Input
Amino acid sequence: MYFELAILVATALAWSASAGTTTTVSNWGDNPSNLPPPPCLYPFQTRHESPDRRWRAIPHQLHPCGGSGSQFMSEVGNLTTYADNLGFPILFPTSNAELGFNCWDCFSTKTLTHNGGGDSEGIAGMVSWALNQFKGDATRVFAVGASSGAMIGNVLAATYPNVFAGIAAWSGVPSSCWANATSSTPSTPDQTCPNGTKARTFSQAQWVNLALSSDPGYSGTRPKMLLTHGTADPLVSILNLNAELAQWSGVLGVSFSKNVTNDPTTNWKRIVYGDGTKLIGFEVEGGGHIPPFQWDATLEFFGLLNSTSNGSGGSSSSGGSSGGGSTGGCSTAQFGQCGGTGFTGCTACASGSTCQFSNPYYSQCL
Ligand SMILES: *[C@@H]1O[C@H](CO)[C@@H](O)[C@H](O)[C@H]1NC(C)=O
Ligand SMILES: *[C@@H]1O[C@H](CO)[C@@H](O)[C@H](O)[C@H]1NC(C)=O
Ligand SMILES: *[C@@H]1O[C@H](CO)[C@@H](O)[C@H](O)[C@H]1NC(C)=O
Ligand SMILES: *[C@@H]1O[C@H](CO)[C@@H](O)[C@H](O)[C@H]1NC(C)=O
Ligand SMILES: *[C@@H]1O[C@H](CO)[C@@H](O)[C@H](O)[C@H]1NC(C)=O
Ligand SMILES: *[C@@H]1O[C@H](CO)[C@@H](O)[C@H](O)[C@H]1NC(C)=O
Output
């Protein structure tokens, strides 16, 4: 396994736990590079739909080389539990086998250009489909990728900054790092990107220009970035972590502020830029290729989870209620809505939970 990717289209609604459903998306529309149909995992819509029928976020998961969407779905551990508790569907895009090794195209001008006709455009097309299908919140679309999936994750951040609110890249390289190579697989003759040669020789200004040139003229909000890498990665040099941090700190306009050791777990180091809300790195001491996913830390960074307030679900409630309606001495069950613009229902929460602000349109009993 060399390279992987997934897309989360999140919702802020949490309900009692129950199994989700998997479907295959056979025709999502824009697909210039003929990507195969990806699996899509979604919690039961009736339980997770908000009263205004909008899903709150759409994550994608991006698989590594040698992988596929369905294979990656089996490797993301209990992310599916979070998806079910928090109520977001997940797309697992699958790359085109033509390149060999089932790697993502992270090298061609097509994929490195906004609407350039490559893999990045096909993935952005899947997001459009999912937003429509699940009535998602277009401001809360996230992608998590590993290896090749992390590389295309960086590419998506540069080519579709208007589509993604956040990207988590596990063992990746900066966007456009593979430019000039003839492919982006482990057998590509030019390995100067993954082996760290470009990371060592390119300046921060070069990385920033490469990222900005993928969608020239874009001036809107850009995705927050979480970049994880093991110091002992034998396939994709750890030097690429520094290069990614240089690229995105320049693009996002944040500078290094501090390192926090043993965060989020032993032997991991949180490298904080600015106030830590736009850009962080996780350097894993002695870690190899694709360190274990850290879903609490990742979903918190995305703003989908507040573990301090214990919003990850788990304890069951009566479920199914959208939490609106009652007045007077009312009480909204845990995970129900208790506030937000236009909300007219009960704002008191059942004992054991409190009303937590999620976004201007949604507060929830957690
Ligand atoms: C997922 O697994 C991790 C590691 O075992 C655990 O700490 C976390 O609580 C689990 N989360 C959920 C929602 O099951
Ligand atoms: C691509 O090749 C050109 C010409 O040699 C070089 O200037 C540029 O830095 C290269 N870009 C990358 C990302 O390798
Ligand atoms: C990186 O790969 C290139 C071939 O693409 C090779 O010439 C170079 O020696 C390698 N460098 C390292 C540090 O492995
Ligand atoms: C923070 O961690 C990075 C990555 O290990 C390291 O390069 C840098 O020197 C550290 N900075 C400080 C101030 O500790
Ligand atoms: C998480 O919840 C705690 C406790 O309610 C609160 O103090 C904190 O501000 C919340 N953090 C975020 C990022 O919302
Ligand atoms: C979250 O709440 C559940 C149920 O109330 C409890 O069992 C669990 O220990 C709590 N987890 C944390 C991290 O506080």
